[in-house]
Amino acid sequence: MHEVHSGFRAASGFIVKNTEYQGDLTAQIKMTDVAVDKNVPAGSLPSTEKEPDDLMEEKNEENQTEAAAEGEGAASDVYRYIKGDLFTSEIFKVEIQNLPKYIGFNDLKKFLNKHGINPHKIKLFSRQMFAFVTFKNQEERDKAMKAVHGMQWKSKVLSVRLAKPKADPILKKRKQEEETEGGPPGAKRTAGGQEVEEDEEEPLDIQIANAVTPLWNVPYEEQLKRKEKEVEGVLLKLTREIGNNNKAMLPWLFVQKEKYNKMCCPLEAIRPSPVQTEYRNKCEFVIGVGADGEDKTVGFRLGKYKGGSCAVVSPSETTHVSSEAKRVVQEFQQFIRTTPYAVYSPETYEGHWRQLTVRTSRIKQTMAIVFFNPQKLQKEELEELKRNLRQYFTEGEGKESGLTSLYFVRMGQRTSAGTEDLPCEHVTGEECIHEELLGLKFRISPHSFFQTNTPAAEVLYSAVGEWAQLDQDSTVLDVCCGTGTIGISLAKRVKKVIGIELCQEAVQDAKANAEANGLTNVEFHCGKAEDVLPTVLNAVVSPNVTAIVDPPRAGLHSKVILAIRRAEHLKRLVYVACNAKAAMNNFIDLCRAPSNRVRGAPFRPVRAMAVDLFPQTMHCETILLFERVDYSSNTDSQTTET
């Protein structure tokens, strides 16, 4: 599914960075405290900067001991990031205590939403029965404290108190190092009074391979087996959840489990990626100090900011980045080293060069998007910098990179919780790049989502088309459609395609792509899926409606699921999940028994399969086919629960 970083893509009410695994610099953060806004895959690297919100991501025990850091030194050091005018929800943070046992993140989020509370981020510690919750402003925080304190939930009386912000992980780590044995960072460790030499580190190319492509040294067949096993675990959990949430399905579930090795539906063999190396058509690179000490290095981070690491390593030896992207990185790095501007520091918020995004296509077109913090530079200086960039890549040494499109983005500090796409200033070349997929042509703008592995996307979309069981009377709802790839690839086989997408730039691309491919039975709507889909569903009169959903990592908004459940004429749904575990609540809500809240006959899973779009990592796409339970059949009869 969707990628993590340029072009924030939210098909639901969450602000979700499009999910992509691995070279992408948003896919470089592991968000275990699931932001209500963002959710990023595990096993990836940290984002270009430490956004203050990401500081919530340290361990539970640190939260419990942070009250000790009240000295003047601590306040002016590890808490320095909260002192300026920049936005961080850490200053609007509360701790909710005495939570019920066995609740999950989504349970807490739904509970808060039910009472009119809109958290910015949530970090839940279920074993300790408390959670940290941040808000976008003081008004929302105070409203939550007043509403939740003393409230009863599942026989538990909740209590709320203010919580201190997290310490800056880099500064905290540095301080700890300096305090250890009274020595400076990097001092030799001691054991029993004896000096011990630090273990010799692995070469940087091995370290970065382990960070961004953790399965690089695992045979591909074994990688596929591991991914298939992960999806099997998801289906086993879904089977249990269906039994817990829809008792009327138990007879059917019993038969399915007997047939399919305790799973609710058959799991078909994983489909491999046609290419296992140099497959990424989009990568987002950090600009920082190299792990080798070289300043202005463009590449990937070795670790996460929350782990105290900002060191950057070149992608030159990575297996998943294309040679075209590596060439652009090398030429761009050479250019910025000739400029007087420093790299941006996520620790001090000073400096300029922040990020480089490179997009490539199989027809040899390459786009680069340069992210630059202007700080207090004058307009004339910025214009001169853009002229120099243009000259370098069109007439200078950078011409050898083969760049066909260049953009410049002024990326300053956030002063509010908004996540609107930053405007891209076109510097030179074409305004878009183009790609061919399944014999069709697609236009791709800077912020638009397009699957990161084009050959594997063809495998994925072919499977989706096969499972959807379409004919000339079918109407397809393509929810979270991006640039329209799925709907457009199916348009010639159906009566009508209706696409829904949040990103305006992607919708414009989708319309242009439909026109470029001579399609007249396709329409696209821009907006949040939860706002647009109910209206679209009500307007569709076709008796043969199939929905195809390909949402961001956090899944669909609950309002989208409720609208799908109410639309009884929608009989079949193909769910493409980039993270099936994160989408579990969607799966459960599709299958749960009807109630006063969830109206309409439930769905049930009938087929599942993994498709590998991310070789050398543990990530894959999962397709699940859901079909509506037929009430006219005695075996499918159900009782409404209230």
Radius of gyration: 25 Å
Helix content: 25-40%
- The average pLDDT is 81
- Which structural class is indicated by helix and strand composition? alpha+beta
Q: What proportion strand?
A: 15-25%
Give the strand order of the largest sheet, numbering strands 1, 2, ... along the chain. Answer: 9-24-25-23-22-19-20-21
**N- to C-terminal separation?**
35 Å
Low-confidence blocks of residues: 1-76, 183-199, 637-642
Characterize the largest beta sheet: strand count, sense, and whether it forms a barrel. 8 strands, mixed
Principal-axes geometry comes out as globular
> How many separate helices?
16
What's the total count of β strands? 25
Structure description:
The protein is an alpha+beta fold. It is built from 16 helices and 25 strands. An 8-stranded mixed beta sheet has the order 9-24-25-23-22-19-20-21, sandwiched between helices. Helix 14 (529-539) runs parallel beside helix 15. Residues 1-76, 183-199 and 637-642 have low confidence and may be disordered.
Question: What secondary-structure arrangement, pairings included, does this model have?
Answer:
Blueprint: H1 60-65, H2 72-76, E1 93-97, H3 105-114, E2 121-125, E3 130-134, H4 138-148, E4 152-153, E5 156-157, E6 159-162, H5 169-179, E7 189-191, E8 194-196, H6 204-212, H7 220-245, H8 250-259, E9 267-271, E10 282-288, E11 297-301, E12 312-313, H9 323-336, E13 353-360, E14 366-372, H10 379-394, E15 405-410, E16 424-429, E17 433-437, E18 440-444, H11 454-468, E19 475-479, H12 485-490, E20 496-501, H13 504-516, E21 522-526, H14 529-539, E22 545-549, H15 558-566, E23 570-577, H16 584-591, E24 603-611, E25 621-628
Parallel strand pairs: 9-24, 14-15, 19-20, 19-22, 20-21, 22-23
Antiparallel strand pairs: 1-3, 1-6, 2-3, 4-5, 7-8, 10-11, 10-13, 11-12, 13-14, 15-16, 17-18, 23-25, 24-25
Helix pairs in contact: 7-16, 14-15
